[in-house]
Each structure stands twice: as structure tokens, then as C-alpha cells.
Specification:
Layout (H helix, E strand, L loop, with lengths): L2 H9 L3 H26 L4 H16 L7 H8 L13 H21 L3 H24 L6 H6 L1 H20 L4 H11 L13
Helix pairs in contact: 1-8, 2-3, 2-5, 2-6, 2-8, 2-9, 3-4, 3-5, 4-5, 5-6, 6-8, 8-9
Protein name: YjaG family protein
Pfam family, one: DUF416
């Protein structure tokens, strides 16, 4: 399945389906932030975890009085500055926090473009990680090497499976959300292939 195909399929989903898919993609990104926090002592994965849980709740109970604004205020200070840390993981943490903020802004503004962007951010994270790996092996990365790398192929495949699930389930229900979240982390690794303990 090619890349354009996945994004085209996402655009054809309903607003709620897109939101559920974005949440599932974030489930795979979030532990990257935790690894960064462990390494640097900056940030707090539990705040991001809690914000993502609130998004899931809001998705299931749109009429609820849950304040996403409050969550945004808590997450914004936890986006690391690239200049403050001399390590690759900073990019991963920034991508994760940025994607989560985009998710919340998308829900507040009912803007499903934000949800499509999250899958793109995840793929860009994977691409950046592949470039980092290739460079550390002394290989000059190019688009073809990145695209054909097993990690990128796997990211595209997992995204395709998550889209399949959302398409096949039609209506988004608490039950289908539970299943989707479980499917997102079923392989026990983050979007860049780091194992979850």
C-alpha cells in the first residue's frame, strides 16, 4: 500500500473516524516522549497521557463538559526546545507533543485537517529516525532509502491496518475505541520500533 493511498483513505473517513484514528496514531507516539523524559528529566509523560485520555473521553462523550483548553495549557510548557537538548530524542518528544496539541486543537475547532496531520507527523518522525540511523551507519539518506526502509514500510502497513479497522467498524463506539487502542499498541512498540516495556 503506498503512502498517498493511506492519506487519501484518511481524508474519506468521517470526522469522528478521523479523530479516533489520530488518537490511535498518538498511542504509538506517546512512549517516545516518555523515553525522552527518562533520559533528560524534562517534561512529564503522565501529563500527556492524561491529556490523550481526556481526548478519548471527549470523543466518546462530545456533550461532556471536559475542558480541552485546560489540557492544552498543561501540555504546552512540556514541549522541549530543540536548542536545550543535544540528543536525537528531542525531535521525537517535540513531534509527539506537537501532534497531541494538534489533536486537541482539532477537537476544539472541529477541524479534521488536524487529525490527518497527525498521521503525517508520525510518518515524518519515522523518516527522521531512519535518516538518523542511516547517518550513524555512514550512509547518506535519500528518499528512496527512507521510503523502502523496513521501519517506514512497517509504519505505512500499521497505519493501513488502523484505517482498515476504522473503516470496517463504521460507527465509533466505546467498544470499537477500546479495540482500536489495543490494536494500535498490540505489537508492543512505538512508531519508530522502540519496544514498550
Amino acid at each position: 500500500m503506498n503512502k498517498a493511498n493511506n492519506f487519501q483513505r484518511i481524508r474519506e473517513l468521517s470526522y469522528v473516524q478521523k479523530a479516533a484514528l489520530a488518537g490511535a496514531v498518538l498511542e504509538r507516539m506517546l512512549p517516545n516522549y516518555g523515553l525522552f523524559t527518562e533520559a533528560t528529566g524534562f517534561g512529564d509523560e503522565t501529563v500527556l497521557r492524561s491529556a490523550l485520555n481526556v481526548c478519548w473521553e471527549k470523543l466518546m462523550l462530545p456533550k461532556s463538559k471536559i475542558s480541552l483548553e485546560k489540557q492544552v495549557e498543561k501540555v504546552e510548557p512540556l514541549v522541549p526546545e530543540l536548542t536545550d537538548f543535544d540528543m536525537f530524542g528531542t525531535y521525537l518528544a517535540i513531534d509527539t507533543a506537537t501532534a497531541l496539541l494538534g489533536f486537541m486543537h482539532g477537537m476544539m475547532a472541529k477541524d479534521d485537517q488536524e487529525f490527518v496531520s497527525i498521521a503525517k507527523i508520525s510518518q515524518a518522525t519515522v523518516a527522521r529516525y531512519i535518516e538518523f540511523l542511516l547517518e550513524s551507519e555512514g550512509v547518506e539518506p535519500d528518499n528512496k532509502l527512507v521510503r523502502e526502509h523496513p521501519l517506514m514500510q512497517y509504519e505505512i502497513e500499521v497505519l493501513g491496518e488502523l484505517i482498515d479497522f476504522v473503516e470496517q467498524n463504521g460507527r465509533v463506539t466505546p467498544e470499537s475505541v477500546r479495540e482500536l487502542k489495543a490494536l494500535a499498541v498490540a505489537d508492543g512498540q512505538t512508531n519508530i520500533g522502540l519496544e514498550l516495556n
